[in-house]
Every structure is written in C-alpha cells, then in structure tokens.
Amino acid sequence: MSAPLALITGSGGLIGSESCRFLAMKGCRLVGLDNDMRRTFFGDEASTRWNVERLQKDLPGYVHHNTDIRDRAAVEQVFAEYGSRVGLVIHTAAQPSHDWAARDPHTDFAVNAQGTLNLLEATRKRCPEATFLFMSTNKVYGDAPNRLPLVEKETRWELDEKHPYFRGIDEAMSIDQSKHSLFGVSKAAADLMVQEYGRYFGLKTACFRGGCLTGPNHSGAELHGFLAYLMKCAVTGRKYTIYGYKGKQVRDNIHSRDLVEMFWQFHQKPRVAEVYNAGGGRFSNCSVLEAIRLCEDIVGRKMNVEYKDESRLGDHVWYISDQTKFKAHYPEWRQKYGLRETLVEMAQALSRREALP
Asked: Which of 14, 165, 177, 326 has the fewest CB atoms within 10 Å of its CB?
C-alpha cells in the first residue's frame, strides 16, 4: 500500500504528534489540526503549542491548520481542500478529563461528540475510502470494572489469577448502565458514532479504547496524564495528590509509539466498525503507589505526596486491557515499551524541556 495523505486531529498532543512523526517516517504527507484547546482546559503548562512548533521544524511538508473541530464549516473547508487525497484520518483531539467535563458539560460534549460527528461526516462526503481511526477511551465502560471481585494486596488491588478477566478486560464488557462521568458519556457517544459510520455507511472505522496513554511528548496536567504529571512532580518536587482507593488503583499504560504502531497495522488491512481495547495490558501496568516508587527510584529522591480519601467519580479501581482481539487480527504487532523504560524516557524529556539539572 502506498503512503497516504494523513489528516491528524489533535496533532500537537501526545498521540497526535507521535502519529505525525511515525507517519512521516513512512513517507506520508501530513495535515495536522490543533487549536491548542488543551491550554484552555488545563492552563499554560498543558499547552501543546511547543509540540506543534517542533513538528513544523522537524517535519518538512507538515501542514498545520488551527482548526476547532466543533466548527463544522471549518472542518468541511479543510476536508474540501484535500478531498479524496486523504487516505487516513487519525482523530485524537478531545476534552480528556472527568473533572473538567463536569465543570462545562456543553463544551465537553461539543468537542468529544459533535466534533467527532463533524469529522466523520466530512470523511464520508470527501474521502469515503479513507481509514478512520478514533482515539476512544476505556471510560466508555463507566465504572462497570469496579464490580469485579478485587482483592486488596500490599501495593495494589488485583483479581484472582483464575478470574476470566485476570489477563485484562475485553471488548465484550457492557458500556451500558454504569457511572461514566460526563467525559465518559461524551466519548461513548463518539465511539458509537464511529462504529455506526462503519456499519451504516461502510466506512473503514476503528475505535481504540485506550488505557493510560503515555510517552515523552505528553503535556501532563493534574486533571489528565497520569504518568506524565506524576513524573513532572517527581522531577520538579511539586506536590502530587493521590485520590482515594489507598493509592492502590491499577492502570495499564501504553507508550504512544506502541499505540501508533497499532494504528498503522490496522491501516494496512483495515476492517469495518471495529473496536479494540488498547492499553498496556499485563505487559505494562502499575498502581499509583507502585508508579510513585518507580519515579522516586528513577529521580533518586522522595516525592512530595499527599493523600485524599475521596476518589474521583466514575474512576476505575482496577483496569487492565485485554489485547487478545487486536493481536488475533494483527499478529505482527508487538508491544515494545515497558513501564520503567517509558518513565526513564519521560524523565529525560522533562529535564530537557524544563531546563532542569
């Protein structure tokens, strides 16, 4: 398959920028959409402008559009400009925080749900043969995973090894009748719409329900970006707050490069209306306490940590992704980046970016 013209939303973010760099190496022409809404959501320190500027510097031919995906006419204009030349759409732009969504539900839903619909409809009208990949989230399952029979261990909550979900949660778990947070609902609406444009219109769509997405290009903030923000606190000495569950809540963490490799594998042999759980799985997971200890070991000093007993609404106590379905469909995919390796890479990138010793 020849390298396509790829259109990437949220191109300044963690997964968007990683997608741009990966696809550039594959010879793709790149069109990025990013209006730095992350700065609006989380403040100046979470701005993605630095990453967009780096893409423009490092990737000759990268074309950037400061487009708000909520603006239907603006989205239509971009797609009209490139038309059927677009062979791949990677949609990573989002409002990604539980807490922020509750503060402004209209904006959250407009970005996550309406923005996704705008992109799907533009794809259907202008480049219906393109592969459409959506960065969904495990929060579409709501708090249903919290009903699992978890056992408290010394540093984590865990499932018995004989439990069917011990290797991870698969795509058969219901997304219905559970508490999602408003963010989880807006992403679930988008997720279902992406599936429907596959089933109803025949578009080659896929939803990748991410666990914790991580990597050195993450503009971590307290309300979003677990490992990135944790390592930022470890490097700078900033206070880190644990919210509930004794700090033993478990997350699986997938490096952005491993995730983008999943995108590429799918694009080589696209299917219609697929859903994949895309997290670190049993290969890369940790509790908050375990992650703190790793960060302390890497930076060589104790972290400034406080604990609040109140957990975040709809938060998962334990979540590990079962990657079996994707591996069955794309057996050449291999996960390469383990937890410690990822954290070391993040610490080095943070030190360079913030000019710390």
From this structure: 177
Pair 22, 264: CB distance under 8 Å: yes
Domain ranges of the chain: 5-353
CA–CA separation, 214 and 341 (whole Å): 12
Distances (CA, A) of 259 to 235, 254, 334, 353: 26, 7, 10, 23
Instruction: State which fold the 5-353 domain adopts.
Output: Rossmann fold (3.40.50)
* SS3 assignment, position 308: strand
CB 230 within 8 A of CB 240: yes
Task: Report d(CA 292, CA 247) in Å as an integer.
Answer: 10
pTM: 0.94
CA distance 330 to 208: 14
pLDDT at position 356 is 42
Residue 223 has pLDDT above 60, yes or no: no
**Tokens at residue 314, please?**
């709809």
